[in-house]
Design a protein that fits this description.
The protein folds into two domains: 84 residues, no CATH class; 159 residues, 3-Layer(aba) Sandwich (YojJ-like (1). Strand 3 and strand 4 form a beta hairpin. It is built from eleven helices and seven strands. 54% of the residues lie in helices and 14% in strands. A seven-stranded mixed β-sheet has the order 2-4-3-1-5-6-7, sandwiched between helices. The protein has 273 residues and is α+β, with helices and mostly antiparallel strands.
Length: 273
């Protein structure tokens, strides 16, 4: 350990213009790698990045001849910085590696006609608005086969057809599954009564309770969208990537569901607007 610390000290004592340029280049490289990761869930980048960090660290620690080579020190330093800055994205994709896919096991509906999708969107919005009107709490997760396995296994698997009656029935206050989250996976209600990880973000407004913290938390660890209805106020909230949009009206819900089911339709709608 003493040799390790001395090597780091020697590197920074010999720091120069070339080293500064290397730092800038590594920073830009890591930034764009993780920007791609954030936008596309390119999970193979996680594996490649991890292997490079482990290899660099092993050489740096165990090989005295190369220990002072900046080529191995700078990637390690910036690996730590990037992991701190993009911890939510990395955690999201690492957990998503264990996603539980029921498409083959339960005769999952792989596609739907335009009319069917329109009906699904209308039923989800109708259910949310009815729940909001009656101040009934609800938490619906829009997933694409990317919910962590432990989340699905914490609830009851349904693989049921989407309908406003089913959604409202599950969240009825005396129903056994009303306290958990409902997972809508493409064209089916995949599960209900699921437990979600709570966000650790200290900046969440104090008036938001456990249901909202769970909805925000799952969007930080998985690439999903959470639709939340407050039991106290009836306010509908949309959560994506750890960010929330409160007071969601029909237009926001419609836009969110359009983007979930088909991005092309959402793009056409924005052009017409």
């Amino acid at each position: 350990m003493q040799t390790f610390l001395q090597n780091i000290k020697d590197v920074f004592l010999s720091f120069g213009v070339i080293d500064a340029l290397e730092i800038v280049l590594f920073a830009l490289a890591f930034y764009y790698v993780f920007r791609i990761l954030k936008m596309s869930n390119a999970r193979w980048l996680i594996a490649l990045f991890t292997l490079l960090v482990i290899a660099s660290g092993a050489v740096f620690v165990f090989n005295d001849k190369i220990a002072c080579d900046n080529f191995f020190v700078i990637p390690l330093v910036f690996a730590g910085v990037v992991l701190v800055i993009f911890n939510a994205e990395v955690k999201r994709d690492v957990l998503s590696l264990g996603s539980f896919n029921l498409t083959e096991k339960a005769g999952h509906q792989a596609s739907a006609s335009r009319d069917e999708v329109e009906r699904y969107i209308a039923d989800i919005i109708k259910a949310l608005q009815n729940l909001s009107k009656d101040n009934i709490g609800a938490l619906i997760i829009l997933a694409n086969d990317n919910v962590p396995a432990q989340v699905l296994q914490s609830g009851v698997l349904l693989d049921a057809r989407i309908s406003s009656q089913l959604i409202e029935g599950i969240f009825f206050p005396k129903a056994p599954l009303h306290d958990g989250a409902m997972i809508i996976n493409n064209y089916k209600v995949q599960a209900a009564g699921c437990f979600l990880p709570l966000t650790q973000n200290a900046n969440i407004p104090k008036e938001l309770g456990t249901r909202h913290r769970a909805g925000i938390g799952i969007t930080e660890t998985a690439n999903v969208v959470a639709l939340i209805v407050s039991e106290e106020t009836g306010i509908i909230t949309v959560a994506q990537r750890g960010k929330i949009s409160r007071y969601a009206d029909y237009d926001l819900l419609r836009r969110t569901l359009n983007e979930y089911y088909w991005k092309d339709l959402a793009a056409d709608g924005r052009k017409r607007a």
